[in-house]
Structure formats: C-alpha cells, structure tokens
Amino acid sequence: MLNEKTRIAVFVSGGGTNLQALLDARDAGKLPHGEIVAVISSSRFAYALERAKKAGVPACVVNLKKAGSQAAYEEQLDRVLKEYRAEMIVMAGFFNIVSPDFISRWPRRVLNIHPSLLPSFGGDGFYGLRVHEAALRRGVKLTGATVHFVNEITDGGEILLQKAVEVRPDDTPETLQRRVMEEAEWILLPQAVEQVAAELAAEKEKNP
Ligand code: GRF
Fold first, then answer.
1. Which residue's alpha carbon is nearest to atom 10 within ligand 1?
2. CA 195 remoteness from chain centre
3. Could you tell me the pTM of the whole model?
4. pLDDT tens digits for the chain (208 residues)?
5. What is the enclosing helix (H) or strand (E) of 159?
C-alpha cells in the first residue's frame, strides 16, 4: 500500500511566513510525505490565517484567553486535532505555551522552529525579536535557526536541523531577523517536516 501521507496540523500566532514556506514547499512537491490538514491560530488577527485561506487549508482560531484556562485551551486544541485526524504538529511562529501533559501525548511528533542556534539564545523569554536583540548584544558573528522536537523544556527538545547565518556589523534586530528567516528558517522547516513526516509514514506502513 502506498505510504499514506502524514497529516500535519500547523500552529501559528502571527505573520505566518514559516507556514508560507511549508505551503510553498508543498506546492513545489517538496513535502511528498506530508499533508497540511489544518492551521490552528492562537489569534484571530494572525495574517497566517489569510495564508491558509489562500492555500485552501482549513483554519481556525483557538484562543487561550477565550478558553478561560490552560486546561480548557488544550481541550479545544485536542478537539480540533482529533477532528482533522492530525498525526503531527508543527509550531511555526507559535507563541503560546502548551503543558508537559499535552506534549506527553505527542512524543517526537511536535516540531518547533526557533530563530537561533540552540542552545544559544533559547529558553524562557527568548522569542521573536528578543532572540536577535540578545544575539546582537552578545556580539556573536554567527547565528541561525534550529528545528527541534518539542518536549517539556522550552526549546530543550532533541535538535533535528540547524543552519548558520552570518551577523553583519550594521545589523539591527529587524535586519537580522529577516535574514535568519530567509536564509535559515524558511529552508530548514520544510526539510525537517518532510523528514519527520516520512519517518511517521513509514512507521504507519509497518504498523498499520
Ligand atoms: C519567526 O522569527 C520565527 O522564528 C519565530 O516567530 C517569528 C515569526 O514567524 N518562531 P512567522 O512569520 O509567523 O512564521
């Protein structure tokens, strides 16, 4: 039986450029073992929702504040994941936290993209522009991006792929963020997602 594609849910919070990289990879045939079946946004204002709509991918908002508690929030996430029969989760510019209990139900099936060469500039408090501000403050000559499995430690899961990006003397946090996205994040994430999707598809074939 042909390897069925692995069903992927993408978690987003903002602009969705990493989601776009996945959608473009899919359209270019670079995601043969994965199917993006749903986009789940933590915010109704996320432009990532527009990107999903244009790409014909079902999308919904699951909002922590509206849910009223972390437990209720994660119950809603579980419900959507079940509805779309998701088999792996990709956190692509996703800023909410999920509990160790939630993660324990998805061992080696949740990926995250972080905009630095972990473990540098990773962990609690390091997200978005803050990561690049810290890299510039420290004066590193190389930074980059990391795709890792998500475990109960923030940015502490097994590292899958990394790609280095040079830091330029005239960089601002904004110019550095953009170059890390263009030269590292948008290249690494589709590669890592296809790698894990293929592994899970092969597993499914062996134990249907
Ligand atoms: C990116 O810097 C990404 O590394 C981080 O969130 C930022 C925005 O991502 N995780 P996106 O444009 O919403 O994908």
1. 93
2. 14
3. 0.96
4. 455 899 999 999 999 999 999 999 999 999 999 999 999 999 999 999 999 999 999 999 999 999 999 999 999 999 999 999 999 999 999 999 999 999 999 999 999 999 999 999 999 999 999 999 999 999 999 999 999 999 999 999 999 999 999 999 999 999 999 999 999 999 999 999 999 999 999 999 888 8
5. strand 159-166
Secondary structure (DSSP) of 61-83: E--HHHH-SHHHHHHHHHHHHHH
In this structure, the chain runs to a length of 208
| Residue 192 CB neighbour total at 10 angstroms | 22
Taking the centre of ligand 1 as the mean of its atom positions, its distance from the CA of residue 75, in whole angstroms, is 25
Atom of ligand 1 nearest to the CA of 94: 10
Pocket of ligand 1 (CB under 6 A): 12, 14-19, 48, 92-93, 113, 115, 128, 177, 181, 185
What is residue 167's DSSP assignment? Answer: P
Atom 9 in ligand 1: residue holding the nearest Cα? 93
Give dist(CA 183, CA 178) in Å, integer: 8
